[in-house]
């Protein structure tokens, strides 16, 4: 199919036009800064960037999806996306009537070489007019197994909903490099440090330092994708030591910042 600019109308229109099919695939383009407003699909969706970087939000979580990762979104899940760079992505729509063993919540996917080739095989197999080739159900069964593998939580940023944490979360989203401690936040918000720490862990199963580090690393990923040098990205998100930043990035994403910058697209 021809590449489009806007994801939402095309996705749901495509599903309405081919509602009997088990699988549909579209390739979409979003210019940097484009905001695909909150919407939902009646089918499951896989978002797989071949170029660029997307930030997707489901309200309770934010996901940063570079071109070597993917995101699974269950049917009827309200979500919105913003292109942090000029982005091209493969949108795979999966008919729930054909797939019953899938995750019930949105989750990032580590794109192994096998998963990458499987998605490309599906894209090549589905012809221009969404004609389904023989054997498509066997490929879908393999995809179902892959989607039920252990998820990659490194690109997932749970968003606390407790109102006591709102000013902290909003401030750090605006300035991930802030070095303000939880004790300082406690004095500013009127809650005790112990209370804030407990609420963080109860709501998102992460400590405050763990959540802030994940936010910093995701923000750094955006800066690296924009071409910022590793040292500048590290300092921008609050790391005084570049080596500490490189090690934290490597542990989170299984590659160094420089390797991330050198990742090739799949177009």
TrEMBL record:
Give a yes or no for keyword Transcription in this entry: yes
GO MF, one example = DNA-binding transcription factor activity
For this protein, the record's Gene3D superfamilies field holds: Homeodomain-like, Jelly Rolls
Q: Which PROSITE patterns match?
A: HTH_ARAC_FAMILY_1, HTH_ARAC_FAMILY_2
Q: Where is the HTH araC/xylS-type domain?
A: 163-263
**Which parts of the chain are coiled coil?**
none
Keywords from the named record? DNA-binding, Repressor, Transcription, Transcription regulation
Q: What is this protein called?
A: HTH araC/xylS-type domain-containing protein
């Amino acid at each position: 199919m021809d590449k489009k600019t806007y994801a939402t109308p095309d996705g749901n229109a495509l599903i309405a036009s081919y509602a009997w099919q088990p699988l549909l695939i579209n390739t979409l383009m979003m210019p940097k800064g484009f905001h695909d407003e909150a919407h939902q699909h009646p089918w499951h969706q896989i978002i797989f960037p071949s170029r660029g970087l997307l930030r997707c939000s489901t309200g309770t979580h934010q996901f940063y999806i570079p071109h070597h990762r993917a995101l699974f979104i269950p049917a009827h899940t309200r979500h919105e996306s913003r292109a942090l760079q000029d982005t091209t992505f493969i949108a795979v729509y999966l008919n729930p009537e054909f797939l019953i063993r899938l995750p019930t919540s949105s989750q990032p996917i580590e794109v192994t070489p096998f998963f990458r080739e499987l998605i490309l095989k599906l894209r090549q197999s589905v012809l221009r007019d969404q004609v389904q080739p023989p054997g498509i159900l066997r490929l879908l069964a393999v995809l179902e197994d892959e989607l039920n593998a252990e998820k990659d939580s490194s690109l997932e940023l749970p968003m606390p909903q407790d109102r006591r944490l709102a000013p902290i979360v909003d401030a750090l989203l605006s300035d991930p490099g802030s070095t303000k401690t939880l004790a300082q936040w406690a004095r500013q918000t009127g809650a005790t440090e112990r209370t804030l720490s407990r609420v963080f862990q109860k709501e998102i199963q992460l400590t405050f330092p763990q959540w802030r580090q994940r936010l910093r690393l995701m923000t750094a990923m955006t800066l690296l994708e924009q071409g910022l040098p590793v040292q500048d990205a590290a300092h921008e998100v609050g790391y005084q030591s570049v080596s500490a930043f490189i090690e934290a990035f490597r542990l989170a994403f299984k590659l160094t910042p420089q390797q991330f910058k050198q990742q090739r697209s799949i177009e």
